[in-house]
Structures are given as structure tokens and as C-alpha cells.
């Protein structure tokens, strides 16, 4: 019975489950600044521009930490990176709650917390999942997007509630404690670096027959320097720039924007959280079809519909409009990061995917840095959110066009 059970259940899914929960917590805190925004301003007497600047620099350091995490995963292992990141997150969270000046808050929350979260982000987890999954790589990586969306859906309303009930400092300390317990347990007892031979192909008899009958085409290995000189990598970077610009804008300024437009705090948090809630279920569908349909077409559709959603969010005036736009947007909110990492793994191989994904994610966070600052500055200067949210829509529509020009795996290998 036990032997039969072991044949039916592939251990790689345990790693995916742990990685999904870690992503939920990491993204929930990194993109969950919205509920903290006004309480921090009121308590520490920062201006919107000052706090937006701290968030913007934090987004940049979150991105800069990604390639470092990817490199360390390749040299020191996933467990080392996760445990190091956890130590940084806990220390910087305590420092953040003790900070009273803008400078202290900038270093604690803006820099060190961002670096710690980068070390426990998808970049640290994508290489190990890519090794454990071949046939179902797209679906496995999509579960990380499920975690990201759950982070928005669960943590945004939760942070809103705990901030109002206990205070923003107590919320950050509580998060750090839960985060440390889950991450340490996952790193020590669940994450395993080395998959069995042929990874998840072992689960499929037909796949094994195909592999035995027709060996995979061997291609000349490509170096990191060569990969950085190719067009597909930079197209992925441009798409991730638009993704980061839009996601971090929504995370930092979505709730304040809706409150500025007359929505109460509960409706604003629910509207933003609904996007993530719907996305949790949509990723299950998108993940299944990502290994059958061309990934570039799926990526283009996701960027296109998401771009239209940003125009819709800034135009809504009543609750039913907000929840309607959030529902439609949630269907395509997930997947861009999962598809981008899967495309990089398809084109360049699993050995390079960690560092390439980390470098590409810098583009994501540069976009997030710009939008996080622009959202606050533009509103204070021009008293409108159209500049920041409208530009996010435009960037996403351009990203959709660029994604259509990406090669598929077969085209690149035959080149």
C-alpha cells in the first residue's frame, strides 16, 4: 500500500506546496504596504512623497537582491539562502518597529527588509522547482503565482484588520514571527535540492516511453554572458518591468487611491484583495494549460487584459463597479511571473534560470520603484491618480505586444 502511494504521489509537489506558502508571505508583505501606508504616515508624520520614496528604494533593493539570491542558490543551496533571508527579515522587522526617524525607517524597512524578502522570494525557489519538474514545469511554477495572488487576497484585508485592531508595529512583529516559523520549517524539513533522475517524467509511463524511444535533442550549452546578449531575455525584462510597475503601484497605492475616490477602507481593501482571491483559482486553470498552449500567447493575453483593468480601476465610482473590475482583473492577474520564468527555463535551461530570472526581476523592481514613487508624488503634485494608473495600463499593453515576439522553445533550439 505504501509503495503504491509513493508511486502515485510525487515528492516535488511537497516542495511546490511549501514554496507557494512562502511566496504568499513574501509577496503579501512586499506588496501589502497599502494597508500600512496611511497608518505609518499618521504615526511617524512622513509625507506621502517621503514614504513613497522609501517604498520605491525598497522595491529597487528587493530587485537587486534577486540576482544575488539566484547566484547564492546556485553556489550555497536553497536552504542557506532561505535561512539567511529569514534572519534578515526578523532583524529588520524589529528595527522597523523601533524606527522613529525617516533615515532609520529607510534603512530598516526600505533596504534590509527588502533584501531579506528577496532571499525568500520566488527567485530562491524557482531553480529547485525547475529541477524537480520537466513535463509539468509550467503548472508547478504557476503555483508560485497562486501564492503571490493569495498574498494579495489574504494579507491585504488581514493587514487592514490587524492594523486597525492592534497597530501597524504589532502587525509587522506578528508577521515576522509567523514568517520565521514557516520558513525555517520548510527549509529544514521540506526543501530537497536533488530530484530523482528524469524528475516528474517518472510519473508518466508515456513520457518515459517517449524519452526512451526518442532522446531529447542536444544543443550546445549557452553561457550567462551569451544569454544576456540575446533578444528574448531583454523582451522578458521589458515585460517584467511593466508587470512590476503595475503590481507595485497597486500594492502601494491601490487602497489609498480608492479611498481618495470615496471608498471606505473596508471596501478598498476588499476590492484589491478580490483581485488576488480570483487569481488564486484562475492560476489553477492557467497552470494546467500553460504546458499545452504557447506560453508567449498566454503571456500577451494576461498583459493585455490587465492593462485594460488599470484603466477600469481608476474609473470605478461605486462598489459593484469596483468588484466587477477586480473580478475580471483577477482572472488574468496571475501568471506573468510564472510564465516568464518558465519561458526563461525553456529557452536557456534550468542551470541558468536562477540567475537569469534574478537579473530579469531587477527590471520588475525598477518598474515597481518608479511606480511606487510616482503614485505618491503625482497625486501630491497634480491631485490625480490618472498619471500613475494610466501609465501602468499603457505599459501593460506594450508588454502584450512585445510578448508576442518571443520565440517558443523549439524555435530557439533550432536557431
Automatic annotation (TrEMBL):
InterPro entries the UniProt entry points to: MFS (IPR011701), MFS_dom (IPR020846), Proton-linked_MCT (IPR050327)
TM region positions: 12-33, 53-73, 80-100, 106-129, 141-160, 172-191, 233-254, 266-286, 298-317, 323-345, 352-374, 386-406
CDD domains (UniProt xref): MFS_YcxA_like (cd17355)
Keyword Membrane on entry: yes
Pfam families found in the cross-reference section: MFS_1 (PF07690)
The Major facilitator superfamily (MFS) profile domain, residue ranges: 12-411
Keywords: Membrane, Transmembrane, Transmembrane helix
Signal sequence, start to end: none
Protein name: MFS transporter
Organism: Advenella alkanexedens
Amino acid at each position: 500500500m505504501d509503495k503504491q502511494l509513493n508511486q502515485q504521489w510525487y515528492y516535488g509537489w511537497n516542495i511546490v506546496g511549501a514554496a507557494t506558502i512562502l511566496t504568499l508571505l513574501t509577496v503579501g508583505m512586499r506588496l501589502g504596504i497599502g494597508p500600512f501606508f496611511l497608518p505609518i504616515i499618521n504615526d511617524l508624520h512622513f509625507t506621502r512623497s517621503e514614504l513613497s520614496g522609501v517604498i520605491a528604494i525598497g522595491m529597487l533593493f528587493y530587485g537587486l537582491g534577486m540576482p544575488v539570491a539566484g547566484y547564492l542558490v546556485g553556489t550555497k543551496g536553497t536552504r542557506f539562502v532561505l535561512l539567511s533571508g529569514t534572519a534578515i527579515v526578523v532583524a529588520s522587522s524589529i528595527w522597523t518597529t523601533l524606527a522613529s526617524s525617516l533615515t532609520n525607517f529607510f534603512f530598516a524597512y526600505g533596504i534590509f527588509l527588502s533584501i531579506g524578502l528577496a532571499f525568500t522570494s520566488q527567485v530562491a525557489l524557482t531553480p529547485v522547482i525547475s529541477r524537480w519538474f520537466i513535463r509539468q514545469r509550467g503548472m508547478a511554477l504557476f503555483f508560485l503565482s497562486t501564492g503571490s495572488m493569495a498574498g494579495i487576497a489574504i494579507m491585504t484585508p488581514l493587514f487592514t484588520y490587524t492594523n486597525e485592531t492592534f497597530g501597524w508595529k504589532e502587525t509587522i512583529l506578528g508577521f515576522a514571527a509567523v514568517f520565521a516559523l514557516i520558513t525555517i520549517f520548510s527549509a529544514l524539513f521540506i526543501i530537497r535540492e536533488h530530484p530523482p533522475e528524469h524528475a516528474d517524467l517518472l510519473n508518466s509511463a508515456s513520457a518515459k516511453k517517449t524519452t526512451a524511444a526518442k532522446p531529447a535533442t542536444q544543443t550546445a550549452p549557452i553561457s550567462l554572458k551569451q544569454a544576456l546578449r540575446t533578444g528574448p531575455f531583454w523582451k522578458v525584462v521589458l515585460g517584467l518591468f511593466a508587470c512590476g510597475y503595475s503590481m507595485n503601484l497597486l500594492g502601494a497605492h491601490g487602497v489609498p487611491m480608492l479611498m481618495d475616490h470615496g471608498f471606505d477602507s473596508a471596501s478598498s481593501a476588499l476590492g484589491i484583495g478580490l483581485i488576488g482571491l480570483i487569481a488564486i483559482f484562475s492560476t489553477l486553470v492557467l497552470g494546467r494549460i500553460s504546458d499545452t498552449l504557447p506560453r508567449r500567447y498566454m503571456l500577451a493575453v494576461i498583459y493585455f487584459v490587465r492593462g485594460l483593468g488599470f484603466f477600469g480601476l481608476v474609473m470605478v465610482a461605486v462598489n459593484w463597479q469596483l468588484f466587477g473590475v477586480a473580478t475580471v482583473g483577477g482572472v488574468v492577474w496571475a501568471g506573468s511571473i510564472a510564465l516568464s520564468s518558465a519561458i526563461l527555463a525553456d529557452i536557456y535551461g534550468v542551470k541558468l534560470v536562477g540567475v537569469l530570472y534574478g537579473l530579469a526581476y531587477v527590471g520588475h523592481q525598477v518598474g515597481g520603484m518608479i511606480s511606487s514613487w510616482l503614485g505618491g508624488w503625482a497625486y501630491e503634485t497634480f491631485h490625480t491618480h490618472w498619471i500613475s494608473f494610466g501609465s501602468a495600463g499603457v505599459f501593460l499593453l506594450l508588454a502584450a505586444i512585445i510578448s508576442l515576439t518571443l520565440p517558443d522553445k523549439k524555435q530557439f533550439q533550432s536557431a
